[in-house]
């Protein structure tokens, strides 16, 4: 079927889903090549973490602020294993349950760090780790006023997302499913709706379990994904990081390519004309 | 002790009581603990002490100091 093949090729050339022509991924005026952000928690060891992050192709890497271990019985700070020259370090306020606590951690992170970005978490429930959206909004307003670029970890609720944007958040980070759950994208409609209504970048944070989850999430048109446990707790984090890199690129390309319409009936892909009598 | 000028400070560091030869600054505390000031952020009584001011910030008995750094997180 030479004829069919050439049609297929010519249709390929009309697709403008080249990553090179994709719009840049920009947050608060800084542009990034990779739409995959990764965390640094829960790895079995730092060597494996470094290799996994490298394999992921991520540029933005999250870190947390904690007390220095004065007895030196535990691991050293993460900067011994992650070069701030190589990665853009994004500090989080994970583990904070109040506005004041989150603000305190954000300020410490800015002092410890290398940029004005903060991944703001105000957690509302210890069992689900779901965000306290009221506290999140209040903390966002304060930190935006102090010059922070706030990337706000929130739920899949459009109204909260809109209010975060109004409050000056640099990016809104709705969850795919609860932190560390690996349940994947539970509410594609909610995520699509948020993306369609916001002007600031939408980065899905938390809940992605495997490559298909990441691909499906990117197919919703969001600007990026942040994940940690899916890599750190995979049997082979380095291989999973590579899979996630491809999945995020594949999902992005599929979104840019524009999927075919869904139909409830079959449509033959082979010509029905020319069949033998 | 030299006429009482050398005193011992008792302060809280990361929630634990610690004794430190005084007088001492925040920079002295870091060097006493063997910590690199570039790798640690110092909070003194809930106020961040910026790095250039560590050597000029005197510690007093009863001060609460937090020493934090970046660790792995998501």
Query: Terminal Cα separation of chain B, in Å?
Result: 50 Å
Count of domain modules of chain A = 1
Largest interface, by Cβ-Cβ below 8 angstroms: which chains and how many residues each? A-B, 36 and 23 residues
- Oligomeric state: heterodimer
CATH superfamily of chain B: Beta-grasp domain
Into which percentage range does the β-strand content of chain A fall?
15-25%
Keywords:
heterodimer; A: 277 residues; alpha/beta; TIM Barrel; 5-stranded parallel beta sheet; 3-stranded parallel beta sheet; 37% helix; globular; disordered N terminus; B: 74 residues; mainly beta; Ubiquitin-like (UB roll); 5-stranded mixed beta sheet; 1 helix; 5 strands
Structural topology:
The complex is a heterodimer of chains A (277) and B (74).
Chain A: H1 2-13, E1 25-27, E2 30-32, E3 36-38, H2 46-56, E4 60-67, E5 88-92, H3 99-112, E6 117-120, H4 133-145, E7 149-154, H5 158-166, E8 171-174, H6 188-197, E9 203-205, H7 211-219, E10 224-227, H8 229-232, H9 237-257
Chain B: E1 7-13, E2 16-22, H1 26-33, E3 41-44, E4 47-49, E5 64-72
Describe the fold and architecture.
The complex is a heterodimer of chains A (277) and B (74). Chain A is α/β, with parallel strands linked by helices and 277 residues long. Chain A contains nine helices and ten strands. Chain A has one domain: Aldolase class I (TIM Barrel). In chain A, the strands form three sheets. Chain A has a five-stranded parallel beta sheet. Chain A has a three-stranded parallel beta sheet with strand order 3-10-9. In chain A, strand 1 (25-27) and strand 2 (30-32) form a beta hairpin. The longest helix of chain A is centred in the last third of the chain and has 21 residues, at 237-257. Chain A is globular and about 85 Å long. The two termini of chain A are 20 Å apart. Chain B has 74 residues and is mostly beta strands. Chain B has one domain (7-68): Ubiquitin-like (UB roll) (Roll). Chain B has one helix and five strands, in the order ββαβββ. Chain B has one helix at 26-33; strands spanning 7-13, 16-22, 41-44, 47-49, 64-72. In chain B, a hairpin with a 2-residue loop joins strand 3 (41-44) and strand 4. The longest helix of chain B is centred in the middle third of the chain and has 8 residues, at 26-33. Chain B is globular. Chain A binds chain B through residues 39-43, 49, 62-68, 70, 75, 77-79, 89, 91-92, 94, 104, 107-109, 111-113, 179-180, 206, 226-229, and chain B through 13-16, 33, 35, 39-41, 43, 46, 48, 50-51, 66-74. Strand 4 of chain A pairs antiparallel with strand 5 of chain B, so a sheet runs across the interface.
């Amino acid at each position: 079927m030479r004829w069919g093949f050439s049609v297929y090729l010519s249709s390929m050339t009309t697709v403008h889903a080249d990553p090179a022509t994709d719009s840049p991924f920009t947050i608060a005026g800084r542009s990034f090549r990779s739409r995959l952000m990764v965390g640094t928690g829960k790895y079995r060891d730092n060597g494996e973490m470094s290799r996994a992050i490298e394999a992921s192709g991520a540029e933005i890497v999250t870190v947390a602020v904690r007390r220095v271990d004065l007895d030196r019985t535990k691991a050293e700070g993460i900067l011994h294993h992650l070069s701030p020259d190589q990665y853009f370090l994004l500090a989080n306020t994970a583990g904070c349950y109040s506005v004041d606590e989150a603000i305190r951690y954000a300020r410490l992170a800015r002092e410890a760090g290398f940029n004005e970005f903060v991944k703001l978490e105000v957690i509302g429930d210890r069992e689900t780790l779901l965000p306290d959206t009221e506290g999140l909004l209040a903390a966002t307003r304060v930190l935006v006023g102090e010059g922070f670029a706030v990337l706000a970890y929130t739920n899949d609720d459009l109204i909260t997302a809109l209010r975060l944007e109004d409050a000056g958040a640099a990016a809104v980070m709705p969850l795919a499913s609860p932190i560390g759950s690996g349940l994947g994208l539970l509410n594609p409609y909610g995520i699509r709706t948020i993306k369609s209504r916001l002007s600031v970048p939408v980065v899905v944070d938390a809940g992605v379990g495997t490559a298909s989850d990441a691909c499906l999430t990117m197919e919703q048109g969001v600007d990026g994904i942040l994940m940690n446990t899916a890599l750190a707790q995979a049997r082979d984090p380095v291989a999973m990081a590579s899979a996630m890199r491809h999945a995020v690129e594949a999902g992005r390309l599929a979104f840019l390519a524009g999927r075919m319409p869904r139909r409830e009936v079959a449509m033959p892909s082979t010509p029905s004309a020319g069949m033998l009598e | 002790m030299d006429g009482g000028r050398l005193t011992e400070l008792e302060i809280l560091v990361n929630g634990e009581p610690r004794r430190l030869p005084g007088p001492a600054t925040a920079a002295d505390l870091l060097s006493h603990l063997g910590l690199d000031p570039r790798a640690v952020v110092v909070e003194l009584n809930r106020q961040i002490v910026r790095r250039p001011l560590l050597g000029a910030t005197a510690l007093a008995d009863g001060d609460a100091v937090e020493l934090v750094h970046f660790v792995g997180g998501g």
